[in-house]
Amino acid sequence: MIHDDIQKVLVTEEEIEKRCVELAQQIEADYKKTGQTPIVVGLLKGSISFMAELIKRFESPIEIDFMKVSSYEGTESIGDIRIDLDMRISAKERPILLVEDIIDTGRTLVEVKKMLKNKGATDVKVVSLLDKPHERAIQADYVGFVVPNEFVVGYGLDYNQKYRNLPYVGVLKPEIYE
Ligand code: XMP
Ligand code: MG
């Protein structure tokens, strides 16, 4: 069982569910002030569990879409990203709420935000389930939980594509990496 590979649970399923209710209320209230309907855009694959839980708690209409991006590896141009899958809905003149699993250096988000602004989005906000605190250029507008600077898995987050289906966020036993 995948549960056997977990050393400790950092955020439980109950905590995530409760936080999603709070986040959705707060986000919805903020968009209500603008009178606009956001496109909620999940960054694949890590955001899927969080996005599914979060969108259930919105009571106003929203649209959803997805993007998949990856960073160029092995080059000096850190921050450059490649779009593997683009949105289907036009971002032009729309506010966008990006849904991310975790923010580490923030480079991914800086680039995706830039890209969406170039496509004509009027506003790009970010909600991230997890935040690893760092000195960085970008902060999420909404954060579920701050986690220590450790590699975490579960609730969408993977190690070698495994553990995304865990219903909580945890840390793997050290022997899994050996
Ligand atoms: P940056 O550094 O651009 O990266 O903010 C964010 C992306 O890096 C991945 N990431 C992790 N994935 N456990 C994971 O499974 C982690 O602890 C972790 N830290 C960063 C993730 O894909 C995120 O979108
Ligand atoms: Mg990710």
Which key terms come to mind for this protein?
6-stranded mixed β-sheet, globular, alpha/beta, two-stranded antiparallel ribbon, binds magnesium ion, 178 residues, 3 helices, single chain, binds xanthosine-5'-monophosphate
Alpha carbon gyration radius: 16 Å
Give the number of helices: 3
Q: How does the overall form come out from the CA principal axes?
A: globular
Q: Give the helix proportion (percent range).
A: 10-25%
Describe the structure.
This protein has 3 helices and 8 strands, in the order E-H-E-H-E-E-E-H-E-E-E. The protein has about 180 residues and is of the alpha/beta class. A 6-stranded mixed β-sheet has the order 4-3-2-5-6-7. The two termini are about 20 Å apart. The protein binds xanthosine-5'-monophosphate and magnesium ion. Xanthosine-5'-monophosphate (XMP) binds near residues 103, 105, 107, 108 and 153.
Reconstruct the topology from this structure.
Elements: E1 6-11, H1 13-34, E2 39-44, H2 48-55, E3 63-71, E4 81-85, E5 95-103, H3 107-118, E6 123-131, E7 142-146, E8 169-172
Parallel strand pairs: 2-3, 2-5, 5-6, 6-7
Antiparallel strand pairs: 1-8, 3-4
Bound molecules: xanthosine-5'-monophosphate (XMP) and magnesium ion.
Describe this structure in a few short sentences.
The protein has 178 residues and is an alpha/beta fold. The protein has helices at 13-34, 48-55, 107-118; strands at residues 6-11, 39-44, 63-71, 81-85, 95-103, 123-131, 142-146, 169-172. Helix 1 (13-34) crosses helix 2.
